[in-house]
Design brief:
367 residues; alpha/beta; six-stranded mixed β-sheet; 41% helix
Length: 367
């Protein structure tokens, strides 16, 4: 299972958000740096509005959503790349995840001390970025030493590595993240083997106060984070209130929806964040639907039908014959599988078919 790591400075609401995401009290949340030392891990269901309509069509009450894994990582401090705070241990925990959710504090609060003494969301982002870039520069420098030795000996792979390392050094030295460096497909594969911290896809969670969530997207601090995300990283920023979300996690779904409505909010920010991270990881969902259950299955964008079938069971991939497929929109429009068949909307797809997000599939196999 792919993992998204929750990072940020101390006291920005990381552990509170993690608890809300996982609906647990697993991560200690307190008003002092490093209250999270060992990373907390939780499996999170991915909200998907398509499941309920499919359940009605299939006449089943059992719904099984897909999941992703979140990791709550200790707060970073200035100087982490030199061993300050939890130093290398913190950086290693980031190295082990597949994507980064950076929580950025956008709320005032005298009761929660800001590690830098003042509220500056973009400045906080730059602090985290600087430490990760510095750590990556050390990694790249070590790789350059190895590559230069091999290149002098005529090793073609070493020469290719050296060319990529030289590009990365220049890019990182200018204070930019590795993920924003334009590289060819072959160069990206070489760079991937370096496991650079700033090469990981990322998204920002702008943590706002409870009474600001309804207008969170329009808050100047959130707009500043969103502008930074778009112009410096090419990603998005989602406004959330970790404090509200932690309260919602304690309520039944109906009461949580009523609570949000009273705040003037249509949907939990956590739901939006989870879906954004799911897509950030390159993950998509297809569905199986029957009277027994409706289930969402995770696949990687670009997967063919046999590979997607293998997520259900290896026998499905090994003995794949065909995939009886209808898109979610076509099935809902037709009102039933029989209706979709009558309209010619159900397709028989073979081994080369690339599965699309929202496909409803019945796999045929023989082993």
């Amino acid at each position: 299972m792919l993992r998204a790591g929750i990072v940020g400075l101390p006291n920005v609401g990381k552990s509170t958000l993690f608890n809300a995401l996982t609906r647990t009290r697993k991560a200690e949340a307190a008003n002092y740096p490093f209250c999270t030392i060992e990373p907390n891990v939780g499996v999170v269901t991915v909200p998907d509005a398509r499941l309920e309509p499919l359940a009605r069509i299939s006449r089943t009450s059992r719904i099984v959503p897909t999941t992703i894994e979140f990791v709550d990582i200790a707060g970073l401090v200035r100087g982490a790349s030199r061993g300050e705070g939890l130093g290398n241990k913190f950086l290693q925990h980031i190295r082990e995840v597949d994507a980064i959710v950076e929580v950025v504090r956008c709320f005032e609060g005298r009761d929660v001390v800001h590690v830098a003494g003042e509220l500056d969301p973009v400045g906080d982002i730059e602090t985290v970025k600087t430490e990760l870039v510095l750590a990556d520069m050390e990694t790249v420098a070590r790789s350059r030493d190895r590559a230069e030795k091999g290149a002098r000996g005529g090793d073609r792979q070493a020469r290719a590595l050296l060319a990529v390392v030289e590009k990365l050094e220049k890019h990182l030295d200018s204070g930019k993240r590795a993920l924003t460096l334009p590289l060819s497909a072959d160069e990206r594969e070489i760079a991937r083997r370096l496991f650079l911290l700033t090469s990981k896809p990322m998204i920002f969670a702008a943590n706002v106060a409870e009474d600001e969530l309804a207008r969170g997207a329009a808050l100047p601090r959130v707009e500043a984070v969103r502008h930074y995300a778009e112009t410096h990283v090419g990603t998005e920023a989602v406004a959330v209130s970790a404090e509200i979300e932690s309260q919602l996690a304690e309520l039944p779904d109906a009461e949580a929806a009523e609570y949000l409505s009273g705040l003037g909010v249509d949907e939990s920010g956590v739901g939006t964040l989870i879906r954004s991270v799911f897509h950030l990881l390159g993950l998509r969902a297809f569905f199986t639907a029957s009277e027994k259950e409706v289930r969402a299955w995770t696949f990687h964008e670009g997967d063919t039908a046999p590979v997607a079938a293998g997520t259900i069971h290896t026998d499905f991939e090994r003995g794949f014959i065909k995939a009886e497929t209808v898109s979610y929109a076509d099935l809902v429009s037709a009102g039933s599988v029989a209706g979709a068949r009558e309209r010619g909307l159900v397709r028989q797809e073979g081994k080369d078919y690339v599965v699309a997000d929202g496909d409803v599939i019945l796999f045929k196999f023989n082993v």
